[in-house]
Task: structure prediction
Amino acid sequence: MQDSPTVSIAIAQLLRKHRFNEPVNFYYAVDGKLVSSPSGEDVNWNSPVFDVTARRKVYSAPTLAMAQKWLREKKRHEVLVDREYFYGKVGPYFSKIIRLKDGAISQTAKSRSYDKALESGVLKALRML
Result:
């Protein structure tokens, strides 16, 4: 069972473009539907082997947390989710993206939920690569 939401197909496509090659349980099929691994085991769906099998690309669909970790460890982009706090009032969530090689910081728009803020942070980090 997953503890974090799965990435969107747009994020899955960008992850593949930037060589995400980690085994995961879910993937986006040729028709764009999110599918679980038939064997129940984690597989690297971005492998060229599956391109031949499907005759078109399928995309690995990791959790947002896994994509966040991969960005930090492999691409040196830290995605941090934070929340505004002003005079005792808690505000919306947002993400900060820190490029670890030079410390450049970028920020996303504000979101009502943690997961949406993380998703927009992961997407923005992938677009920064």
